[in-house]
């Protein structure tokens, strides 16, 4: 595959915070139209990588191309093409869900009438119609992820970046999120999401990138990366976790009869 | 096989700050006996463990953070100054006439109690041991919890400083051995009263304080307290009180029979009446303590009262209907909503207008000033400066949510439009407010005609201030904490930047307005005509500069305004 066929391609992406190297030379590749999972243990550099790829954090070194356009040289082209659901999900808390969507749409120069039409549909699909006029500050975690995803989809981006979209989300909301994302990729768009829920990644993704300690340790089609094992086993092997726990000799008091 | 010590799969959080060393056997931690008592289900934990918990929290909070350490050292120094100055001042009362000394002591004791009642409330959340819900899962009886929390409340810099300062009253007021003995009891009771009262108030409100609405209300009341604290000052300045000694005496006789008043009086009296007063005081402390324990046990089983979110009206404001559809309208209407809905927005506006009002009032109160248009122009321009200072960190209140804007903006022009939207929102509120202020200032100065130059110049100053503020917003951005309290305006470690931004904006605005405002104040009224176009020009230039700077350094801005607070 050539670079132009990739939705995301980075070369030598590097970021250091003080003494700590958070991302040390990452070459992330995501082919167009794939449902890609970026997995790794806590502190592996997933969030830092996604922040740099989406132009929210300036890399110390490296090149990032999205759909062939350089993120830091050609921001207009890139920003029109991507949608983002960032980590921690800080939204404009004192706007209602509906106001948040129209705000986002107007910022992107979509005509008001069109924004309202899309917002209405997104709110209905996300099952947020009843809470559309409540302030986002009073939303639950699942509702926040859904309104965040709705805001990221509003301008119909080509590539969607989601940082931990399913963390802290109840099964019903998670199902809604999955349904929407499946429809979205079916139309040929690309989703990149980070997670450490292996089952979910295994169920949804056709492309996986595994990160550990600021590096990509494996990358490719799901079948290739897991190589016949479950993704969880493959992952634990890749990040070098002890296979069978290491607490056998300690914790002997745990579950014993007296305190 | 096994990787080095910091395996990424094992939870590599900071080591828990547990009291004893964790060895194989459940050894009792040094100091407090924590042996499990399976029969009773409650651990036998003495207050000492809470004291150590508090000390550990203080120490842990400082570890590895130079700015916090400096802040703590500063607090220590301030407390030492307060303690020694308070002690000496109270002790020096011995030199004053006896009745004056007694009056001062009564008023001071009451002020100390009021301080203890209010300040911890405004700073709620600064101290982990204060929130009983964090201890709810420990197997402790309410009585143990109360004793422990009392002990941990007493542990700290400010309680100690209070105790030392109040002790000065014994030196200053007591007579003879009996007086000193009663004095010691009175001081201890006054101290206990302060602590128990402040505990009772924070505990009974802790449920409310954990809700969003409760904190919103508190944020507003914080600023009211700050403004209210200016009132006596103002009244004294205006000479309403007359003879300060008479004021003091009036105040003291009003407070004489309040609990702190009785404590202070007991020290001076030193007789049978003092004994009775102290007995009453002790009874009160016990009653408040009981109430506190009751509040504590209720707080432990009450859930976080989650606010059932009310809907907001889904209407487009007047501004949105007038403005063409797009970024400018989006940002301006969003800013107006925030000014109304975010407590930080409301506090900002309220503070700016209240401070201006107080200034206008006191400027006119001064004797000997030459009456002239300056008396109207001055307050109006100061008002404009105060309002525009709110914009010296335009992106601060957006905080991390600004990612949404930066994801949409691909050019410097977009950032300029964003700033223009913010300025438009400020002007929508500020222009009418300044107009009203100018008319009031004109009336107070004795000539309504002066309102017109005042109004025009204040609009000009507003424009200059917004232009300067746009530049400081992109050059010196800082995080505005979501939980406002009356003592900090920036995230930990960013106090210096916040100070530089607001001070820089103030100086910059003042210098840039001099060319038009100075001639006016000197009597060349025609210069006022230039103020408005000049202000518009500067605000345009500021936005242009800030837009270009903002576009090149928005990841850094984003980082600076999303620091954990």
Q: Summed up, what is this model?
A:
Chain A is of the alpha/beta class and 259 residues long.
The CATH superfamily of chain A turns out to be P-loop containing nucleotide triphosphate hydrolases
Q: What is the H/E string of chain A?
A: EEEEHEEHEHHHEHEHEEHH
Oligomerization: heterodimer
Total helical segments of chain A: 9
What gap, in angstroms, lies between the N and C termini of chain A? 62 Å
What is the residue-averaged pLDDT of chain B? Answer: 78
Termini separation of chain B comes to 41 Å
| Portion in beta strands of chain A | 15-25%
Determine the structural class of chain B based on helices, strands and strand pairing: mainly alpha
Largest two-chain interface: A-B, 59 and 50 residues
Relative strand content of chain B: under 5%
Q: How many strand units of chain A?
A: 11
Radius of gyration of chain A: 20 Å
Count of the separate structural domains of chain B: 2
For the largest beta-sheet of chain A, the strand count, sense and barrel status come to:
6 strands, mixed
* Number of helical elements of chain B: 20
The first-level CATH class name of chain A: Alpha Beta
Secondary-structure element string of chain B: HHHHHHHHHHHHHHHHHHHH
Descriptive labels:
heterodimer, A: 259 residues, alpha/beta, Rossmann fold, six-stranded mixed beta sheet, five-stranded antiparallel beta sheet, 9 helices, 11 strands, B: 565 residues, mainly alpha, 2 domains, 20 helices, globular
Would you give an account of this structure?
The complex is a heterodimer of chains A (259) and B (565). Chain A has 259 residues and is α/β, with parallel strands linked by helices. Chain A has a single domain, classed as Rossmann fold, CATH 3.40.50.300. In chain A, strands 7-8-9-4-10-11 form a six-stranded mixed β-sheet, sandwiched between helices. In chain A, a hairpin with a 2-residue loop joins strand 10 and strand 11. The longest helix of chain A is centred in the C-terminal third of the chain and has 16 residues. Chain B is an all-alpha fold and 565 residues long. Chain B contains 20 helices and no strands. Chain B is globular. In chain B, helix 16 runs antiparallel to helix 19 and helix 18 packs antiparallel against helix 19. Helix content of chain B is 70%, strand content 0%. In chain B, 41% of the residues are buried. Chain B starts with 46 loop residues before the first helix and ends with a helix. Chain B has two domains: 255 residues, no CATH class; 244 residues, no CATH class. Chains A and B meet through helix 2 and helix 3 of A and helix 12, helix 15 and helix 20 of B.
């Amino acid at each position: 595959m050539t670079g132009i066929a990739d939705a995301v391609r980075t070369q030598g992406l590097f970021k250091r915070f003080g003494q700590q190297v958070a991302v040390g030379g990452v070459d992330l590749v995501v082919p167009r139209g794939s449902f890609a999972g970026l997995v790794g243990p806590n502190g592996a550099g997933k969030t830092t990588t996604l922040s740099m790829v989406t132009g929210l954090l300036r890399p110390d070194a490296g090149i990032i191309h999205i759909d062939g356009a350089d993120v830091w040289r050609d921001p207009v082209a890139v920003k029109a093409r991507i949608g983002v659901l960032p980590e921690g999900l800080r939204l404009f808390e004192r706007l209602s869900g509906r106001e948040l969507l129209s705000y986002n749409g107007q910022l992107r120069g979509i005509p008001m009438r069109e924004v309202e039409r899309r917002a209405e549909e997104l709110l209905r699909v996300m099952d947020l119609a009843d809470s559309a006029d409540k302030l986002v500050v009073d939303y639950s975690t699942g509702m926040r992820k859904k309104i965040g995803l709705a805001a990221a989809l509003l301008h119909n981006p080509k590539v969607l970046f989601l940082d931990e979209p399913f963390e802290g989300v109840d099964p019903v909301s998670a199902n809604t999120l999955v349904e929407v994302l499946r429809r979205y990729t079916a139309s040929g768009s690309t989703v990149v999401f980070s997670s450490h829920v292996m089952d979910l990644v295994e169920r949804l993704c056709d492309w996986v990138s595994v990160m550990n300690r600021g590096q990509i340790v494996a990358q490719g089609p799901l079948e290739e990366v897991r190589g016949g094992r479950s993704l969880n086993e493959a992952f634990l092997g890749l990040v070098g976790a002890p296979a069978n726990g290491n607490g056998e000799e300690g914790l002997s008091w745990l579950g014993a009869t007296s305190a | 096989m096994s990787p080095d010590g910091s395996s990424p799969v094992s939870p590599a959080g900071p080591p828990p700050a547990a009291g004893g060393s964790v060895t194989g056997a459940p050894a009792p931690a040094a100091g407090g006996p924590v042996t499990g008592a399976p029969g009773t289900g409650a651990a036998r934990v003495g207050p000492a463990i809470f004291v150590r918990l508090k000390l550990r929290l203080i120490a842990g909070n400082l570890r590895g953070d130079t700015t916090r350490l400096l802040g703590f050292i500063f607090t220590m120094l301030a407390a030492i100054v307060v303690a020694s100055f308070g002690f000496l001042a109270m002790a020096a009362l011995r030199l004053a006439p006896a009745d004056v000394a007694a009056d001062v002591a009564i008023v001071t004791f009451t002020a100390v109690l009021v301080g203890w009642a209010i300040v911890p409330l405004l700073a709620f959340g600064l101290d982990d041991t204060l929130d009983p819900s964090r201890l709810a899962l420990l197997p402790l009886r309410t009585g143990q919890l109360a004793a422990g929390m009392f002990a941990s409340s007493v542990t700290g810099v400010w309680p100690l400083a209070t105790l030392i300062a109040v002790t000065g009253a014994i030196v200053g007021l007591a007579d003879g051995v009996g007086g000193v003995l009663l004095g010691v009891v009175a001081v201890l009771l006054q101290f206990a009263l302060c602590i128990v009262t402040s505990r009772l108030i924070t505990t009974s409100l802790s449920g409310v304080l954990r809700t969003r609405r409760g904190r919103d209300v508190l944020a507003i009341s914080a600023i009211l307290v700050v403004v209210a604290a200016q009132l006596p000052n103002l009244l004294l300045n205006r000479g309403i009180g007359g003879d300060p000694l008479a004021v003091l005496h009036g105040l003291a006789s009003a407070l004489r029979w309040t609990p702190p008043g009785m404590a202070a009086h007991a020290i001076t009296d030193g007789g049978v009446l003092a004994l009775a007063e102290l007995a009453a005081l002790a009874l009160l402390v016990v009653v408040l303590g009981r109430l506190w324990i009751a509040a504590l046990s209720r707080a432990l089983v009450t859930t976080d009262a989650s606010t059932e979110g009310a809907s907001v009206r889904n209407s487009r404001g007047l501004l949105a209907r007038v403005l063409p559809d797009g970024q400018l309208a989006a940002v301006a209407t969003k800013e107006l909503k925030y000014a109304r809905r975010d407590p930080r927005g409301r506090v900002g506006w309220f503070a700016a207008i209240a401070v201006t009002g107080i200034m206008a009032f006191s400027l006119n109160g001064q004797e000997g000033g030459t009456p002239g248009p300056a008396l109207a122009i001055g307050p109006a321009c100061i008002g404009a400066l105060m309002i525009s200072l709110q914009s010296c960190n335009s992106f601060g209140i957006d905080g991390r949510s600004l990612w949404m804007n930066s994801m949409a903006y691909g050019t410097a022009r977009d950032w300029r439009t964003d700033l223009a939207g913010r300025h438009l929102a400020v002007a929508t509120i500020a222009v009418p407010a300044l107009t009203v202020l100018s008319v009031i200032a004109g009336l107070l100065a004795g000539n309504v005609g002066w309102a017109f130059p005042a109004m025009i110049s204040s609009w000009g100053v507003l424009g200059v201030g917004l232009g300067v503020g746009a530049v400081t917003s992109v050059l010196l951005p800082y995080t505005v904490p979501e939980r406002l309290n009356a003592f900090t305006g920036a995230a930990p470690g960013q106090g210096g930047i916040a100070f530089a931004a607001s001070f820089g904006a103030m100086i910059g605005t003042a210098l840039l307005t001099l060319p038009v405002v100075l001639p006016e104040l000197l009597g060349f009224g025609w210069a006022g005509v230039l103020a408005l176009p000049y202000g518009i020009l500067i605000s345009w230039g500021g936005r242009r500069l800030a837009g270009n700077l903002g576009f090149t350094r928005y990841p850094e801005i984003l980082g600076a305004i999303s620091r954990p607070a």
